[in-house]
Inverse folding.
């Protein structure tokens, strides 16, 4: 990890923000190659549109001594800076430009009024879009992009979404029409477990991300 990371905070609204840290990992391409080769990748299913849908991306997880040293360093930095204990590490891989994920929020934490979601990117640079959640269905695809911002993390960049981001904002890694290589992201999550819990059926998975640092 680089010696003294520079953190740029972007205020999205009065209670939502995102921190961007460029180049926090030294030699990120080597980390990408290690993760692509050694992680226990799997392809799961998600319940959408009243049926099970095969996920387009591969996922994996790391915990304990099996964590990659670069991820351990970033996790330590995250917990020191934000003074909370995050969840274990989840990995996601988009293998080519045809794999992506539309606008969504991380409902799996159930309590989304005060959260931290950190994403560390390795490999190909892809758009990472954020836009306000208006609560209205999007009919015209151009409407989804009208108020969107693109953080576009490069290999070794870190994004931390905080405050009410998961309540008030949506994020996406859209498909891209041009050839692009693999992109892997490592993700950490934490929630304060306060406010109005999510009641959507897809959010009932009993996962827990809140562990205050003692």
């Amino acid at each position: 990890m680089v010696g003294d990371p520079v953190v740029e905070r972007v205020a999205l609204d009065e209670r939502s923000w995102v921190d961007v840290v460029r180049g926090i990992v030294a030699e990120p391409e080597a980390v990408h190659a290690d993760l692509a080769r050694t992680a226990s990748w799997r392809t799961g299913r998600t319940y959408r549109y009243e049926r099970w849908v095969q996920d387009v991306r591969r996922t994996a997880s790391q915990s304990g001594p099996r964590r990659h040293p670069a991820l351990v360093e970033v996790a330590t930095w995250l917990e020191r800076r934000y003074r909370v204990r995050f969840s274990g590490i989840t990995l996601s891989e988009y293998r080519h430009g045809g794999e992506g994920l539309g606008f969504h929020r991380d409902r799996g934490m159930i309590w989304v009024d005060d959260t931290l979601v950190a994403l560390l990117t390795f490999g190909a640079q892809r758009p990472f879009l954020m836009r306000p959640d208006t609560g209205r269905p999007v009919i015209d695809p151009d409407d989804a992009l009208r108020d969107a911002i693109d953080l576009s993390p490069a290999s070794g960049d870190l994004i931390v979404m905080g405050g009410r981001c998961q309540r008030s904002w949506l994020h996406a890694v859209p498909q891209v029409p041009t050839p692009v290589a693999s992109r892997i992201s490592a993700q950490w999550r934490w929630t304060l477990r306060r406010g109005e819990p999510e009641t959507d059926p897809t959010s009932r998975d009993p996962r827990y991300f809140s562990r205050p640092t003692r």
